[in-house]
Design a protein that fits this description.
23% strand; five-stranded parallel sheet; 7 strands
Length: 185
Amino acid sequence: MSRIMIVVGSVRPGRIGLPIAQWVQTAAEEHGGFDIDFVDLAELNLPFMDEPNHPRLRQYTQQHTLDWSARVDSADGFIFVTPEYNHSFSPALKNAIDFLSQEWWRKPVGFVSYGGVSAGTRGVIALEPALIAVGLVRVGAEVELPFAGGQVSSGVFTPGEKESAILGKLFEEFATMAEVLKPLR
């Protein structure tokens, strides 16, 4: 069974990313093929990069980095639930990625992105160079949620059939890629 980390990529008060990520978590649990580590970056509360050494050295000095490193290292891959901010990525998500290096190497990553008319896709595209630099490998399926705030009521995200179907495809691709990439790490 692959260990999947679902990451809430926004820390903004009033964010809709948390209920969307909770939907992803519930769907992953129903899928049954994953051990799930749910990470809310607001709770993780990483400071802005405060390590004195380059992450590729893995010479961490801060307990929060050691803890984050262990969690990421133990994951077989990731689903980032992320917004688009000003045609770009979430700074909290980018910071969480930048804290580490080798821990991400040759693991699959999928996206559930949300935003306005572009559904968060510009944020995902802006993040791609950083993902490539740390060795993450994107799965093909991506859930894109335009104007997703309209699907959140009383703190619960209600997906449509299309979003649920694409998320199922993302899970299948993720499971396959997690196994295929293991020997390359």
